[in-house]
Amino acid sequence: MRRIGILFLVLVLGIPVAHAAPAGPVLGVISSFTGRFAEFGEQHRAGLAVALEEINARGGVRGQRLVLLVEDDTSSVTAALAAAERLINQNVPLVLCCYSSSITGPVAQYFTRQRRPFLVFTSSDDAITRPGSEWVFRINQPSSTYAEVLFDVFDALNQASGGRRPIQTVALIHGNGAFETAVATAAEGLAKGRGYTLVDKQSYDQGLTDFRPILNRFKARSPDALFMVSYAEDSVALMRQVKEVGLNAKIYAGGAAGFALPGFLTGARDAAEYVVTATAWTKDVKYPGAQSLYERLKRALGGKEPSYHAAQAYAGLLTAADALRRASLTDPESLRRALRETNLMTAYGPIRFADFRGYRNQNPLKMIAEQVQRGQFVTVYPQEAAVGRILFPAPPWDRR
Amino acid sequence: MEALVAFAQNLAGGLLIGGVYALIGVGLSLVFGVMRVINFAHGEFVAVGMYLTLLLYGYWGLDPYLCLLVAAPFGYGLGLLLERLVLSRLIDAPPDSTLLATLGIALVVSNTLHLLFGGEPRSLYVGYATATVRLGPVTLSVPLLIAGAGTLALIGALVLFLSRSEAGRAIRATAQNRVGAELVGIDTLAHHRLTFGLGTALSVVVGVVLIPLLFVTPAVGGTYTLKAFVVTVLGGLGNLAGAVAGGMLLGVVEVLGASYLAAGYRDAYGLVAFLAVLLFRPQGLFGRAVRRV
Amino acid sequence: MRPAEVIPQPAAFAVDRVLGWAAGCGVLVGIALLPQLLPGYLNLGIALLVLVGWATAWDVLGGWTGQVSLGHAAFVGLGAYTLGLGANTYRMPPWVSAPVAVLLAVGLAWAWGRVTFRLRGPYFTLSTIAVAEILRLGAINERWLTGGGEGIFVRELARPLGLDLFDRHVQYYWALLYAACAVALVAYLAPRRFGYQMRAVREDEEAAQAAGVDPVAVKLRAFMLSAGLVAFGGVLYGAYLSALVPHALFDLRLSVQIALTAIIGGRGTVWGPAVGAVLIVLAAELFRNLFASANLLIYGLLIVLVVLFAPRGIVGQWERWRVRRRYARSVAGR
Are residues A240 and B130 in contact, defined by beta-carbon separation less than 8 angstroms? Predict the structure, then answer.
């Protein structure tokens, strides 16, 4: 019994193991490398590795090697908060975070109260930067822009057809997770605001999913556009069932998450053809170095297909290092101002922070739309970034 | 007319998925009926079956339905092992303990799967995954059809086993009256092991049959466990025919609820039915109020 | 259950007692002064103390009364959302939303319990899962009530006595008070009539009834107490996170974690759940960077091991060991 007591004490006292903050420029990163979100943490790790190599190859930060302190939040918000506290204690001047909005939200609030700068590079919940705070900066696009870009595509297609409006009715199906709901809500608002008719709308709970009842109902309403917002697993099942049920729409719009991942192509195969997806980044987008970044990320992932999350981590680290170069490492306020003045071009896109439409310190980077053509993703919108033309309308299933 | 076709479509889909639910429920019901164990890990073995099929298909190109020949014995063996290691020690412990023990097993299984296969959702892409067949005005998915029909056939085989074979009769005797079974010379402990193995094997089979239709992640087991509970309670714990009916009912209720009422609450319909039966007809919709010894 | 103290304590073991007391006091002082001693561990400390409170509250129903609930996360969500929605939509100050949350939780527990307490043992547990799941779906789908799946941010909270409720120091002492009250409450109830009634219902409902104890009334009271306490912790947790998402709060995983914490620590003991919480939170933090991937697996293995070899939980086994040692010594004439 005594032995157990001693063991217990050791366990308790083992926690505050002294961490000497490393000398020189340091950045902290929190992400989910284990647990439910581990697959995205893996993508982040690759992006960070590629960026770190690039930064240090070009002389680091003011001639010194940049060091990264990486913390695993194990997909748990309490662990993320503990990790955040640890990083602040070690006087890490800037921390980058995380994957899930359910984790990023509380951590962002924490950094705001601690008055320390905080950089978000993947989490897309609008509320993080709307209204956000002066300490929270985000380089990636917020959830509502995922819906926006797709409606921009609808508008563009309508305009290109002269007088008629081939896309008038929209049916909306979405998961009930935080991200999906945000995109769906934005989509609803846009439909109303831009004169589209929302003929049906349905949300579903995560888990075992059989969409056939919902899709059958949609089929009866013959929508011009089918707007879907789902995570990876659901997106494959959804498209397969759309094909099975014979729901013919002129355009299938995927509000990112699942539809932009490489797994969607391998999973849905021929059912994925013609689907237009909103995404944050593609390898053939016309920003300098995009293709090279794609190849480096793929190598860092051991041959696995990189998703846009990896590119986001890459851009996040580049942005952070850039701000460090222009600021004092020990003064949070100077770092905050340096971030604010960021004006950087990366392979992910241009990075700067602005206040607009209620957002604060948000990068006004545009979302991209890509379409599955002959089994590959092709960037089709906006014009500046597009590589191919959008194929519209999608042919009915029995004529493919 | 459109509405009628849609209804028929939904009904058919509900019945087929119901067949699959029935198989999950039958395994759980069997285990409970014989061992009085509420197996929280039941759904995890469905995930095990799914991953096993992915492995076999990935390495040897084995068609999922052929994987059954490997998966079923594997599931059986796994069940025997777990029973021997964990459950047999808890024979006379209060029911809480077995519940918690199986909860622990569920955690171990799902996390092991996570460690082995990672968190990405995976599915199986066979040529006929999106194939459909038309029965009159109704279009049915081929994998779903195979899943539904196949599981019903399997349940039929199970019923035959239980009623005609010696081991099957011994199992039923153990379920009805453990002490009495011992008295007539049945080794109830060995039959407990057999039953648990059988229950696990059935779960694994469900996994094999579902993977062409759906996807798997390590966390998926919990959802299937919950479905199994709902089915078993609807049919009456320990009542196999009831579990079949319960499964079909759940499938239909879910599908119809999702189409005609709010789909966001799809899972809730089953849960409400589950609660209602638990409270007002605890012997299940099809059970008889029998006092067990 | 400890036998009465009829075995005299030989003087030789007084040293043991003094050491024990000194260690206990040292720990208490350390806990009270943590924000000064280890200022970098406040987040961890708050999360730990909140879990202590939750596990102890759960144990009132799960350990003392023997009704295992796997749906307690519903009360966490209720507490957190009452704070958040109260502040955002109704400008309710936290000293109003906290009692409101507790009352709502007590009311929910009463309704829930009235309906499900005729179920025994594992059936009751299954029903708690079902009810919690239905509540989760409600929280996600009913946007007008909870802001829907997207969740809400709690940005402003009124200040009681000028205290900033988002300040980690304030939250730490709030959490400490919460955990201490939960444990003190259980310690208070244990030797009193209600404590015995709970145990009676746990051990044998029919015998309890024969002795004049109304099992359903006792279970209801225990459930209401348990729920109210958990909801209060939920209010604190809401302020701690300040960004609430229904999936994370009404999650079955959280319910299971709370239950397992109390079980591993020792059901039906005063300090069991607290010990369980310390063990689990500290181990998770320690292993987070050491064993990364395996940390969740260890959790599952732990519960199986506890159920098989230490069914009373850590503190439960320890108490039993103490009793047996004392008996062995008395028999050996020492």
Answer: yes
**Residue A10: which residues within 8 A CB-CB, separation 6 or more?**
none
Contacts of C119 in chain B (CB under 8 A): 278-279, 282
If you write DSSP's letter for every residue of C55-110 in order, what string do you get? Answer: HHHHHIIIIIS----S-THHHHHHHHHHHHHHHHHH---HHHHHHHHHHHHHHHHH
* pLDDT for the residue A207: 67
Whether C141 shows a pLDDT value over 90: the answer reads no
Query: Given CB atoms, is A74 within the 8 Å cutoff of chain B?
Result: no
The interface predicted TM-score of the complex, written ipTM, equals 0.86
Residue C4 scores a pLDDT above 60? no
Q: Is A183 on the interface with C (CB under 8 A)?
A: no
Residue of A25, A69, A76 lying closest to A323 (CA atoms):
A25
Please tell me the class of the A23-141+288-362 domain. alpha beta
Find the helix or strand (DSSP H, E) in which A251 lies.
Answer: strand A251-257
CA contacts within 13 A on the Cβ side of A392? 24
Chains in touch with B (≥3 Cβ pairs < 8 A): A, C
Mean predicted confidence (pLDDT) in A300-311: 92
Q: Which of A205-219, A375-389, C248-262 has the lowest mean pLDDT?
A: A205-219
Count of alpha carbons within 13 angstroms of residue A342, beta-carbon side: 31
C14 belongs to a structural domain: no
Instruction: Establish if C226 belongs to a structural domain.
Output: yes
Q: Is residue C11 part of a domain?
A: no
For the domain spanning A144-279+367-399, the CATH number is 3.40.50.2300
SS3 C135: helix
A42 SS3 class:
helix
A193 membership: H or E segment, kind and range: helix A178-193
pLDDT tens, residue by residue, B194-250: 999 999 999 999 999 888 877 888 888 988 998 898 888 888 777 788 888 889 888
The CA-atom distances, in angstroms, between B272 and each of B279, B282, C124, C131, C138 are: 11, 14, 14, 8, 13
Mean pLDDT score, A2-21? 51
* Residue A329 dihedral angles phi and psi, to the nearest 5°: -70, -15
> Terminus-to-terminus CA distance in chain A, angstroms?
73
Distance from CA of B271 to the nearest CA of C (A): 6
Residue C74, domain CATH: 1.10.3470
Query: Cα separations (Å) of A124 from A183, A228, C244?
Result: 10, 17, 15
Show the domains of chain B with their CATH numbers.
Answer: 2-280 (1.10.3470)
| Interface B-C: count of C-beta contacts within 8 A | 106
Quote the number of domains for chain C: 1
Cα dihedral value C211, C214, C216, C222, nearest 10: -90
CB-nearest partner of B95 from C121, C252, C297: C121
| pTM of the shown model | 0.88
Output the six-digit token pair for B91: 């024979």
Give the gap in angstroms from C-alpha A163 to the nearest C-alpha of chain C: 38
Q: Which domain holds residue C276?
A: 34-331
Q: Is B50 exposed, middle or buried (0-12, 13-18, 19+ CB in 10 A)?
A: buried
Place of tokens 């023990």: B101
Strand residues in chain B grouped as ranges (E): 122-123, 132-135, 138-141, 215-216
Confirm whether A23-141+288-362 and A144-279+367-399 share one CATH topology.
Answer: yes
Hey, where are the domains in chain A?
A: 23-141+288-362, 144-279+367-399
- Residues C240 and A94: beta-carbon distance below 8 Å: no
Q: For the segment C5-41, what is each residue's pLDDT rounded down to a tens digit?
A: 555 555 545 666 777 778 778 877 878 887 777 778 8
CA distance A34 to chain B (A): 9
Peptide bond preceding C94 in cis form (omega within 30 of 0) = no
Nearest 5 degrees, angle CA A48-CA A50-CA A53?
A: 105
